[in-house]
């Protein structure tokens, strides 16, 4: 009869072969038994086993099986590897134990790539993405590029691109191979204010090893966007070519500003500045009834003109851009340096289905394929290279469609559960929010109490009801919540709707959020322009109790009040009901004159052999 102890042991899982081997290798490594090779780093010696190293590392397998005398060496010196890094690598191989920190992860990733230990490379690579820095980004860029590690490559490129000018003087930059350098020079997102920075980087790289690299100069200069250089900058380039690089010379063409842009292939990211573009309604009034919100009246608009201005929040100054004539009550959204304006009212108050694109680098408007449905006062939002036009008048307010910015085509998407207009809208984390507003086709007329949320991925709408009564408000996404401002809201007595200056937050679920204070607006206003610039929420224009509002205010989280921007809107008659505004990237001042000039002049467009 077996004892209780034997019964307990019989129920235990037997040790697997893998576990047995791991335990045995660990014990032999710790006891330094049967070791047949020594790795050396920084003079420190580590005795280990050829069989284990060769089984997990193609690098060691080739080294140990090569038909060369070095393959039988008892000691292998690993140059440029810290002893602490090698110790961690060996601990991982023998025990699977690995402690990653911000300090050691980049070195472990480098060692894993060098020794071709793929499991360690993957673990350290996932960790190091969050710890790419100015000090290690160039090394990680070259390493991830040579070992085809997309996550680390993307993180390293992001850091290099944002710090290209200071990094271009580093030893690591000068050590890049020419293919890695060309990949950098071709990037649109380099944060350089002038193409001269790119030219100087090429010059430093070539001059560091001139005998080897001078033959590569012409190929490298093919990635410099010469049409973006001013006359003064070109003078420096010409002087260099005449003095140092006589085997190449500049090519010239006669171009205007648009031609410069086309010949260069576009601006780098650092050549743009981000600010606020605003389409207001200048000098408008009606010849008939004041009820301009009605779809059935026959009133006529005396003047329709939508001048376009750009506001620099840093300098608090306005600049005039190319006008978009004959539209108002349109909706707009931006993607990078391009602004898109859809729908609105045209001449004679006809609702239109047009879509226009403004390119700030050329200061020109282009008409794109029209929407399937005419719209005004509608939601117009952008998410991942698509534009979304939702609801609005003059139809039943239920239709919705999306525009593919790559294919330049419209496609229908799921319709909201019911029509709605005069609402606030925002996009947050792949979801479109329709907040408040008038329900269309409902008798008697009723306000949407709550929100409609459209999940882009699933193409499904969800209604989120709650006891909130408001319409003609504005909204903007702020971190993980939505800030809703102004509009007509429930009065203090709770019996009717009045113009309000109240603001509140909605969470991602569309429900009222009390996460942080949000002060009331300075004035009571309906349908103001609202957007986020950096860490600020801006409110521009709108319609107040006494007519159009021409002020601009902003609020930063943590502040107890809104801050008034000096000067306000650029014209005393520029305030508008339902203004159209968005964040837009525009060329910085030094490039504006070059790109917006209409006269033709000689422009350097590349280099050729001399």
Automatic annotation (TrEMBL):
PROSITE patterns, per database record: BTB
CDD domains in the record: BTB_POZ_ZBTB_KLHL-like
**Domain of life, source organism:** Eukaryota
Query: Which keywords does this Swiss-Prot/TrEMBL entry list?
Result: Kelch repeat, Repeat
Domain BTB: residue ranges: 35-102
PANTHER family noted in UniProt: KELCH-LIKE PROTEIN 32, LD33804P
Q: Per its record, how is this protein called by name? A: BTB domain-containing protein
The organism encoding this protein is Sphenodon punctatus (Tuatara)
InterPro entries in the record: BACK, BTB-kelch_protein, BTB/POZ_dom, Kelch-typ_b-propeller, Kelch_1, SKP1/BTB/POZ_sf
